[in-house]
Design brief:
It contains 4 helices and 14 strands. The protein is mainly β and 277 residues long.
Length: 277
């Protein structure tokens, strides 16, 4: 396990979820069977997908964040809805994120993390996910192909049975942004990561006014929390502030760890164009 606080500076956005805890045990992931031994074409196919109204984001949206610890600004991350592609005869959003350390920190610990997700435009679930981590001397690349018609994810030359509408860690945030969040609510999302499936609760705590370099925003505070042992247990409490409007843009993310508070704050944003039905 890579346990340096400099690494933690670069794991706060959906990128913050990419370096997940390898100690998450299979008994904690009961929603996902270990391996699928039968041919995928032997499973029943389903074309009756859900439809979710999305007035939160669209093509052209780009969010830029500074990542730091206390008074130290260590890097920058972007989240962008790049374009709409055709996949499996359905329109999908191509969403990508990039996290990189600033030049000064490159001398000590260079970070260049990227991720890409294809999110169904109508149902807001994942069809494809790819992440590539370059952190110091550590390099890792993973690709996940989601067969939502048969509830299968193919990853690392293995097929896994998963729940309906399972999400990757990146699409999960975009999905939450489309939900009408009320204080006291708990939203449960089923996530797949690497070779595991787990339930992630998003708890809605309250409303606050948050000021960041991009401006002052009325926000709703949420907390992602695993139902069982896993990533957040080891990294401290994570809080995310979303704008309290139709966009629900993430403007601030903060994680309390032993050394203090690590944050990612919005510095610039561009609103995208909503999909026309």
């Amino acid at each position: 396990m890579r346990k340096t606080y400099l690494i933690i500076l670069f794991v706060l956005l959906p990128v913050f979820l990419f370096a997940q805890d390898d100690d998450l045990q299979i008994e904690d992931t009961l929603l996902c069977s270990d391996t699928l031994m039968v041919p995928a074409d032997g499973l029943e196919s389903n074309d009756d997908f859900r439809f979710i109204i999305n007035d939160a984001f669209g093509v052209g949206e780009k969010l830029t964040f500074t990542i730091g610890w206390k008074m130290i600004k260590a890097g920058e991350a972007t989240m962008e809805v790049a374009e709409i592609l055709d996949h499996e005869d359905r329109p999908v959003y191509k969403v990508r994120t990039i996290a990189k350390s600033f030049p000064f920190f490159d001398n000590f610990f260079k970070v260049r993390d990227t991720a890409e997700a294809w999110i169904d435009v109508e149902g807001l679930f994942t069809w494809y996910f790819r992440k590539k981590l370059n952190e110091g001397s550590y390099e890792n690349e993973q690709v996940q192909v989601y067969d939502q018609r048969r509830n299968i994810v193919r990853a690392q030359d293995t097929a896994f049975v998963v729940p309906e509408y399972v999400q990757d860690v990146l699409s999960a945030l975009y999905y939450v942004r489309t939900i009408d969040l009320e204080v006291g609510d708990t939203v449960t999302i089923y996530n797949f990561e690497k070779d595991k499936c787990y339930p992630l609760d998003v708890i809605v705590h309250g409303k606050e006014i948050i000021e960041v370099p991009a401006g002052k925003f009325k926000c709703i505070k949420v907390e992602p929390l695993l139902q069982s042992a896993g990533i957040f247990k080891h990294e401290g409490t994570l809080s995310v502030w979303l704008t309290d409007d139709r966009l629900k843009m993430p403007v601030l993310m903060r994680s309390k760890v032993v050394v203090g508070s690590i944050y990612a704050e919005l510095t610039d944003y561009r609103i995208g164009e909503l999909y026309e039905w």
